[in-house]
Amino acid sequence: MLVTSKELLEDAQKRGYAVGAFNVENMEFVMAVLAAAEETGSPVIMQTTPGTLKYAGLDYYLANVRAAAERTKLPVVMHLDHGNSFELAMQAYRTGYTSIMIDGSKLPFEENIALTKRVTDACHPGGIPVEAELGKVGGKEDDLENGDDNPYTDPDEAKEFVARCDPDSLAVGVGTSHGVYKGVPKVNVEVLSSIRKVVDIPLVLHGTSGVPDEQVKDCISRGICKVNYATDLRIAFTRGVKAHMEAHPDDFDPKKYCAPAMEEIKKYVIQKMEVVGSVGKA
Ligand code: 13P
Asked: Could you give the 3-state DSSP secondary structure of residue 41?
């Protein structure tokens, strides 16, 4: 069933695990992520960035995820990832997304608060939770790019931010980046613990593809309740397509090369559901 992220993340926070949030690019991603959730009994969040939405649109992605949600008893969330304007957040809300991120992290502090508050004021009366972001996640998320300035979320600012604009969850800058890492990333877990001491809502880790599993588990023990994976699913899918086409260069039926590509995603997502501790939590 399609649910909001509110209860899922609150349960994760209470019981000390995290829910995996997986970026879906097409119907095959949705099917593969659902298959992984079914196999592990995991609650699951599927999400789309503004870049992905330019490819197909809110209605197409929601229809795919709704179809998946209707086939299962597991809780499934449709989340707008990195919503970059009030207008897009409202379009996602009206289309029927069950969780909305507004990312004002590139704005000055006061403007981020004002934008986030506008979105929480609009979404909360309809029972739709809002994820906000404070601090920087580096790298490039589709066509959204962040610079190399100080990435860390300031705990005191985080406390004030949450008090003033009332988000339901908060994405924090703790040293992760979107995309493929050049070396092995090192999450600043002390910053995370300092934020947790003064902020009591579920915290969100972005840019998790390529972050060693042990670091992800450490982050979860310090308050991360939602863990985002995008790049590695794209890599897994493409690896499956390439391997199939190398072995069968004359194949032309997408069903033939998408099946192994979905298997690659499913394998990856099952392993990450084990890492975040969501197995059997649905
Ligand atoms: P990765 O692409 O590094 O997995 O980041 C995903 C993400 O944070 C989506 O918002």
From this structure: coil
The CB of 146 under 6 Å from ligand 1? The reply is: no
The residues annotated as belonging to the active site are 81
Cα–Cα–Cα angle for 28, 32, 35, rounded to 5 degrees: 140
Beta sheet of 138-141, edge-to-edge order = 144-145, 138-141, 177-178
Domains by residue range for the chain, with CATH: 5-276 (3.20.20.70)
pLDDT tens track for 64-121: 999 999 999 999 999 999 999 999 999 999 999 999 999 999 999 999 999 999 999 9
Point out the ligand 1 atom lying closest to the alpha carbon of residue 180: 3
Question: What is this structure's pTM?
Answer: 0.96
The CB density around residue 186, as the number of other CB atoms within 10 Å, is 12
What's the 249 CA to ligand 1 centre distance in angstroms? 32
Cα-to-centroid distance, 177 and ligand 1 (Å): 8
